[in-house]
Amino acid sequence: MKRYIFSLLTYFVMLPTMAQISANGYYRVKNFMTDRYIIVVDNKSKGVDKVTTTVDLLALNSVRSWDKIESNPASVIYIEKVSGNEYNVKAQGCDASALVGCYLRLDQLNGYPSIYKAYQTESGVTVYLSDEIGDWDVAHLNTNEKRAQNWVVTPISKDTENYFGIKPTVTAGGKHYAAFYASFPFKATEGMKQYYVSKVDYANRIAVTKELTGETVPAATPLIIECPSAETSGNKVDVVESALVAPADNLLTGVYFNYTETAYHTNQVVYNPQTMRVLGVCADGKLGFVKQEGLTAVAANTHYLQVNATCADELVVMGEKEYEAFVASGIQSVVSDETRENGIYTIQGVGIDKNNFNSNTLTRGIYIVGGKKIIK
Fold it and tell me: Which candidate, 360, 354, 349, 328, places its Cα nearest to that of 368?
């Protein structure tokens, strides 16, 4: 027998019953009564307990505040009509039909073209997706609240109030950047640029970036996005359909989830300061990939750079052309003036204590002292 449809992902398929059923595309789904939007926070579900008839829906939350939705890829759901009132749904790198083995049924509310009920029937029992009723901003979905079973499905468009925008996470050198990762393709707005890391120069502590050109950004591509505005509403993009694939030389690793509701629904990428760097600001104010103190897990819908254990705490971001000019110049280090004067580093960029350097216990080799290479 097919895996029970009530699995978390199945429900998430139900959610996206679209406003215009005839058109496949990207939508947001909001509960008619609670005004909360559905977001996907995990990709696992224990399904249904056939004894108690309870359903594991912890991978689906509902959120009311628009500022938590406008730039949240977890609120963007792709809906694809299969036949009749059956639909397949994709979001956050998940394909519901592939994971649960079936599709979702969506019925339009008579007289209301954008309002649907999402449900499935198993062994003669029909269960509807509903929201929690209450004043809180964030809630869990359920199947037992009859007053909150109606869902408003609205296409995403940058020309409407239901837009998607990029929210900057880092400001450096007077420019705004976002560490961004989403499962959908999009067309960037005017003035927006997209980059990814194609090389790491450990000796000179540089993360070399390549600009992603072209009208459409491929799905599932972790990117550094240079935003024209500090405000999300100034960085609207067109969420589109595209078969483009992510560049193969991208060294960034994307992360969809950071969720810790229960032991089973804990879906995180634990941050390892020895082998991971995240987008941030270097000590000299430049954009870079840095070791971040106090970080326990990589944020959802962002990315990290995997590095070796000898990597310096900071890697300055440098474009390909700038890096080529840097290499051609013969400069041996990109450290700040203060570091040039006082810093001591291994050839891999790892800082060395001055007292340790002057001792006889340090391994012989090449070191950078005051910005110059010396042999010890």
Answer: 349
Q: Which residue in 157, 171, 181 sits closest to 74, CA to CA?
A: 181
Q: Are 315 and 289 in contact (CB under 8 A)?
A: yes
Instruction: Give the number of other CB atoms < 10 A from CB of residue 83.
Output: 7
Give the burial class of 24: count Cβ atoms within 10 A of its Cβ; 0-12 exposed, 13-18 middle, 19 or more buried. middle
Using alpha carbons, select from 244, 241, 254 the residue that is nearest to residue 182: 254
In sequence order, which residues have a C-beta less than 8 Å from that of residue 201 and are 6 or more positions away?
Answer: 207, 208, 323
First CA to last CA across the chain, in angstroms?
Answer: 70
Which residue in 235, 210, 230, 233 sits closest to 222, CA to CA?
Answer: 210
Q: In the block, which residue shows the tokens 């912890």?
A: 58
Q: What is the pTM of this model?
A: 0.81
Strands 287-290 and 302-306, sheet pairing: unpaired
Residue 95: in which H helix or E strand, if any?
strand 94-95
With a CB cutoff of 8 Å and minimum separation 6, the contacts of 199 are 207, 208, 251, 323
pLDDT per residue of the chain (376 residues) written in tens, 0 to 9: 333 333 333 444 344 333 445 579 999 999 999 999 999 999 987 766 655 556 788 889 999 999 999 999 999 999 999 988 889 888 998 877 765 566 888 999 988 889 999 988 777 778 888 999 999 999 999 988 999 999 999 999 999 999 999 999 999 999 999 999 999 999 999 999 999 999 999 999 999 999 999 999 999 999 999 999 999 999 999 999 999 999 999 999 999 999 999 999 999 999 999 999 999 999 999 999 999 999 999 999 999 999 999 999 999 999 999 999 988 877 555 554 444 445 676 655 566 766 666 655 566 666 677 666 565 6
